[in-house]
Structures are given as C-alpha cells and as structure tokens.
C-alpha cells in the first residue's frame, strides 16, 4: 500500500551549467563557428514515454474486469493520458514552434506520438571533439557525451521527464491494483463454487428469510459493502472524469508555455540602473512561473494519485463483498435469486407493455381506417350517384343549363337576378350538404377529396366553395383562390362598409394578429393587404362559408356576440357584387 503514496520528484535536476558558464560556452562556439548540438537525453525520454503508453494499452485490454462503470471512467482518462504522452509540446521560440516533427513508434487508439529527431549523439573517438577516456583503451567500452543544450531545451526536457515520472507512477499503481484484484477475484470465484467470476458482479438481493441464522451476518455485510462501494464509485466519477483530466492537461500545458516564454528572454547587458532592474524583474518572473509550473504539476499528481487511492478502496470493498457471496454460495444459498426474480419481473413488465402497445396500435389502425372510410364517403349519401364535379345544372350567362340532360344531379336550377341566383345556390348547397342535411361536408387537408360544384377544384375550402356556387348559379368564373378572386374582380363594384352589404355579395377577410394562416398578398383600392378568407352574404346579417375545420359548411348571423366582435368586424376587408 505504501507504493500508492509514492511521490515523484518533480523539481529540476541541478546537473546543468550556470547561465554565465553557459553563455561563455555559447560565445566561444559562435567565435569558432561551432553550432551547438541538442542533448541526446530526449531519446531516453521518448523511449520512456512509449514504454508507458504500451503499458496503458495493456491496462485498457483488461480494464473491463473492474466493477461498475470504472472501466469507462478509466478508459477515457487513459486515452487522454496516452495522447498527452505521445504528443509532447513543441519548443516555442521567436513566436513560432520548433521544426521538431511528431511521429509515433507504436500503434495506439490516439493520434501519432513524438519523434525526438535532431539530437546528435557524439561518441568517443569523433574527430571534431576532444576524446574523453574514462577507461583504458582495451576495455572496449565506449562512452558518449553531448553538447550542453539551451535553457529552452532544458525546460522542455524537464517537462517531458516530469510527465513521464508522474504518468509512469500512476500507471504502475493502477497496474499493480488490477493485478492484485484479478488474482484474488479469481480465487474467490473458484473457492465459492461459482461457474464464472462474472457471477460475483450480480447484485445481491436475496431475501433475508432465506439465509440461515449463522450466515445472516455475512448477508448483512454484503448489502453494506454494496452500498459503500456504490457511494465511493459515485464520488470517484464526480472527482475523476474526462472533464477534470482535460482541465489539468490544459493547466499543465499553459504553465509550461508561460515558463518557456520567460526563459526564452535573455538578460540585458545591465549597463545602467534601468537594465539592471529589468533583469531583476525577469529573474522574478522566471521564479514565479517556476513555482506555478511546479504547483500545476503537483496538482495533477495529486489528482491522479487520489483517483488510484479511491479506486483501491472501491476494489477492496468489492472483494469483501465477493467473499461474502462466495461464503453464501458455498453453503447452498443462491446469491442471485433476488436478481433473477427482478429480471423475471422486468421481463413480465416488458411483455405486458409490448402487448398493450400492440393492442393500442391495432385500435389506432382500426380507428384510422374507419376515419379514412368516413372521409372518403363524406359529402355523399346512398342515393347519390353523380359527383360534385359534373356540370349538370350549371347555367350559362343567358340562364340556360349546361349538360341539363345528365341525370342524377343534385344541383337544381335557380332563377332570378345574379345576386338572387348566388344566394339560392348557396342555400341549396347548405340544405343538401349542411349540418342538418344528414350528409354534411367533411374537410380533410390530407386527402383533399371533397368537392362542391366545381370539378377543377379538388377540395372544399372557402374559395372553392364560392367559385363553385357562383359558377353553378351564373356561369361566371370568379377565380380559384382568394387573391385570384380579388385581383380578377378589382373593377367590379366594391363596398368597404359592412353595413352596406347586399345579398349575393362576396365578402373577403384580412388576417388579424394571432391568425395562423396569413393568406395571400393583394393590392386593393390603392393599398396592400393580405386576404385569407371569403364568404357569401345572404342578407339580414347572415353569411355562409365553407371552413377548413370540422364545421364544413357554416351559416350564422353576425348581429351580436362573438361572430360580430371577434369575427366579422375585425376581419372584414371588403366585398364585391356581380
């Protein structure tokens, strides 16, 4: 358990030159035209990162053995950690990234990882440097050394080493926990006479009355451990999740980049007081961001270590729970009995629900079928053999009927002036197809199959009704829809006062606020309107209309009440007469 509390060393290694010594070396190299070389320790860092990433792959393959939703919790976090390992940040210098490429030497489910190329390894015996002999020539051992790198390179190196130490420690703890957990879990399953270790994951819910007196304490502990484990798991999911992991990764990256930024700045020559003070300020900023960087890394370390400590407690709690189940099962008590009953109950509920759904669906289909048959037969009675579309009874402008020889027509010839014919034909439609006729018109926006008088109109809306009435009564085609009717009859006599209406006038409505249907745009009497409805005035403040709702044909008086104040007066646009 002490291994879980290991804290990696995340402070810089003091194995580098002072700034003055480093600057002197750089100055000498510039004078000799010698290019400084990158340290080769990045190769070791890269190899360590790849090794840890491979260990993470191994853990992800066996992590499903963990109880509850721990596998998904850790899988998401491990994917992020693996991506962070294999994608080191570039060196930011002079406002842009370094030309260090990112590659990967292993296949993972993350994006490709790093390549630490550009590092020159200088071996003993190279002609361009002084050889350093630490052993006699005949021992055959070669020692390699490297040129000292820049501070920026060191900053990046230390960041990658710190991450390797931290992630390596985290993965090692996790792997150790899972190994110990798996060994004991498999042994418990075998000792408890279970067919598979998966049987231990079944929730214990066996009634207490079925447990013998000597084993009731074990049953009580199982229930207690189950509750305890579930509470700890909820806590883990709250404090250790993909969102928190991303927050720490971003915090570490920002602290590293801020630190790198100030180490990329060089001290001034300090020729006067201002430059000296500026160097002091730069030194303070470096120290400040060193501390911030160290604190961010330590916070991340605590976050990862805290998750492993809590996970270890969850796994130990589950093993205690599993030991209790094994004891009961070994003594002939079915630890899955409650679960099996719950499953059977659930299956019964699902079967009943499925049966109810099928019955409801069947009833709805029958209801829709009856409605469809009703809509298909709407507007027709058993004695009717013709169609509203035939021209029987239609009179020409001279008063003679069109196709008067066709039998079976319900349209009766009307006489009188044009307004009188319109009123009579409208009332005829009302008497034959109105609510009291025993065969009312029913309207369907889906089917659009019910016609009144007009064979060219496939549905009975307001404008089709008006057109059909006028065409049957007078032979005059006033237009197909409301806007067509207004535009086609602009030159006729119009009235714009509701009190000046005469029988046979064709009334047009404008939409008001709240109306769903806004109608068609028209220009009338020099002004622009929208028109959305038309009616026929019968006289004595009565009108007749065909609505697109359940009312079908409707006749009403608008002298008072709702039809006066909320329907006619606010919507009345005007009317024309033929």
Assembly type: single chain
Name the helix and strand elements from N-terminus to C-terminus, one letter apiece.
HHHEEEEHHHHHEEHHHEEEEEEEHE
Strand order of the largest sheet: 7-14-8-11-12-13
Low-confidence segments, ≥5 residues, pLDDT <50?
1-6, 34-40, 93-139, 378-409, 442-450, 454-458
Please estimate the helix content.
40-55%
Roughly how many Å apart are the termini?
102 Å
Number of strands: 14
Question: How many strands, what sense, and barrel or not for the largest sheet?
Answer: 6 strands, antiparallel
Beta percentage is 5-15%
Global shape: elongated
Structural class: alpha+beta
Calculate the mean pLDDT score and round it.
Answer: 75
Rg: 45 Å
Q: How many helical elements?
A: 12
Write up what this structure looks like.
This protein has a six-stranded antiparallel sheet. The protein has a two-stranded antiparallel ribbon with strand order 1-2. It starts with 18 loop residues before the first helix and ends with a strand. It is an alpha+beta fold and 578 residues long. Helix 2 runs antiparallel to helix 3 and helix 5 packs antiparallel against helix 7. The chain has helices at 19-31, 41-62, 70-85, 151-191, 216-239, 242-264, 273-330, 337-376, 418-433, 462-474, 482-488, 562-571; strands at 92-93, 96-97, 122-123, 144-145, 394-395, 401-402, 493-495, 506-509, 520-524, 527-531, 533-539, 542-546, 553-557, 572-577. A hairpin with a 5-residue loop joins strand 5 (394-395) and strand 6 (401-402).
């Amino acid at each position: 358990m002490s291994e879980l509390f290991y804290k990696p060393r995340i402070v810089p290694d003091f194995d580098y030159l002072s700034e003055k010594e480093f600057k002197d070396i750089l100055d000498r190299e510039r004078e000799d035209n010698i290019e400084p070389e990158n340290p080769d320790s990045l190769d070791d860092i890269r190899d360590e990162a790849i090794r840890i990433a491979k260990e993470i792959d191994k853990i992800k393959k066996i992590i499903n053995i963990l109880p509850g939703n721990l596998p998904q919790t850790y899988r998401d976090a491990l994917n992020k950690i693996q991506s962070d390992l294999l994608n080191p940040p570039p060196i930011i210098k002079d406002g842009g990234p370094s030309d260090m490429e990112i590659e990967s030497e292993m296949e993972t489910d993350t994006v490709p990882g790093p390549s630490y190329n550009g590092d020159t390894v200088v071996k003993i015996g190279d002609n361009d440097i002084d050889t350093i002999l630490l052993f006699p020539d005949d021992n055959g051992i070669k020692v390699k050394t490297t040129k000292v790198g820049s501070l920026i390179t060191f900053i990046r190196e230390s960041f990658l080493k710190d991450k390797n130490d931290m992630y390596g420690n985290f993965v090692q703890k996790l792997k150790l926990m899972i190994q110990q957990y798996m060994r004991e879990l498999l042994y418990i399953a075998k000792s408890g006479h279970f067919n598979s270790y998966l049987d231990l994951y079944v929730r214990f819910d066996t009634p207490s009355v079925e447990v013998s007196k000597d084993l009731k304490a074990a049953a009580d502990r199982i229930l207690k451990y189950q509750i305890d484990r579930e509470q700890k798991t909820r806590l883990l999911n709250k404090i250790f999740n993909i969102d928190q992991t991303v927050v720490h990764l971003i915090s570490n990256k920002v602290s590293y980049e801020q630190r790198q930024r100030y180490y990329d700045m060089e001290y001034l020559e300090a020729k006067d007081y201002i430059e000296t003070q500026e160097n002091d300020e730069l030194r303070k900023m470096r120290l400040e961001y060193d501390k911030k960087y160290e604190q961010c890394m330590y916070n991340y370390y605590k976050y990862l270590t805290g998750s492993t400590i809590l996970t270890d407690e969850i796994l130990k709690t589950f093993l205690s729970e599993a030991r209790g189940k094994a004891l009961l099962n070994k003594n002939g008590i079915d630890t899955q009995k409650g679960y099996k009953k719950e499953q059977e109950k659930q299956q019964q509920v699902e079967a009943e629900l499925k049966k109810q759904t099928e019955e409801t669906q069947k009833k709805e289909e029958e209801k829709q079928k009856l409605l469809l048959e009703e809509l298909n037969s709407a507007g027709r009675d058993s004695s009717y053999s013709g169609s509203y579309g035939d021209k029987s009874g239609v009179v020409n402008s001279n008063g003679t009927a069109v196709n008067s020889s066709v039998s079976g027509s319900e349209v009766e010839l009307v006489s009188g002036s044009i307004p009188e014919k319109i009123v009579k034909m409208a009332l005829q439609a009302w008497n034959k197809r109105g609510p009291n006729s025993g065969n009312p018109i029913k309207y369907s926006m889906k089917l659009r199959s019910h016609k009144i008088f007009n064979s060219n109109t496939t549905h009975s809306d307001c404008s089709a009704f008006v057109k059909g009435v006028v065409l049957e009564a007078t032979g005059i085609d006033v237009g197909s829809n409301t806007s067509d009717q207004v535009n086609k009859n602009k030159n006729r006599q119009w009235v714009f006062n509701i009190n000046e209406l005469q029988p046979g006038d064709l009334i047009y409505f404008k939409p008001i606020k709240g109306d769903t249907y806004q109608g068609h745009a028209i220009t009338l009497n020099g002004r622009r309107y929208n028109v959305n409805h038309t009616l026929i005035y019968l006289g004595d403040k009565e009108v007749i209309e065909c609505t697109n709702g359940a009312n079908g044909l409707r006749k009403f008086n608008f002298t008072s009440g709702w039809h006066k104040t909320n329907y006619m007066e606010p919507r009345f646009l005007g009317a024309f007469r033929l």
